[in-house]
Amino acid sequence: MKNYEEKKQAIIDIINNMDSNETVCIWNEYKEATNDPDDLIYSVNEIDEILSDMKPWDILRAGFYGDYRPCDKFFKFDGYGNLKSFDYPSEEIWPDEIAEFCIDNDQDFDNDEIREILDEEEDDE
Q1: Three-class SS of residue 89?
Q2: In contact, 27 and 98? CB cutoff 8 Å
Q3: 50-78, pLDDT tens digit by residue?
Q4: C-alpha–C-alpha distance, residues 29 and 111, integer Å
């Protein structure tokens, strides 16, 4: 039986042990659940689809004023609509926020390990 903080830390550990694609997936599901699409992270394999509605000049501007490197694996938009790319999404993801949301909303994002933690009874301490 775990208390809130122990459950939170257990979920953080689960998220920290995921591979990059799993981490991005759970982050995006969390952001969609909280109606915060501005922080979604995309694979560079999706770039044509994600930028398809943008005009060429806007794409060039977003790359120039952003921090975009075509060799990186992931990208997102910064607060100004510019592109920011990176290889390690863990730098852009906050597992503690996800863990708190999971516990507060009984949300496991279809992850069996998180579900096990959520189903454990809480200590009263």
Answers
A1: helix
A2: yes
A3: 999 999 999 999 999 999 999 999 999 99
A4: 12
Beta strands across the sheet bearing 83-86: 42-43, 74-77, 83-86
Nearest in space to 90 (alpha carbons), one of 12, 24, 14, 8 = 24
Q: What is the CA radius of gyration of the chain?
A: 17
Enter the tokens of residue 111.
């992850």
- Bridge partners of residue 85, in order along the sequence: 75
- Rounded CA-CA distance 53/69 in Å is 21
Of the candidates 52, 45, 10, the residue with the CA atom closest to the CA atom of residue 24: 45
pLDDT tens figures, 79-95: 899 999 999 998 899 99
Q: Cα angle at 61 between 60 and 67, to 5 degrees?
A: 95
Query: What is the rounded distance in angstroms from the CA atom of residue 5 to the CA atom of residue 103?
Result: 10
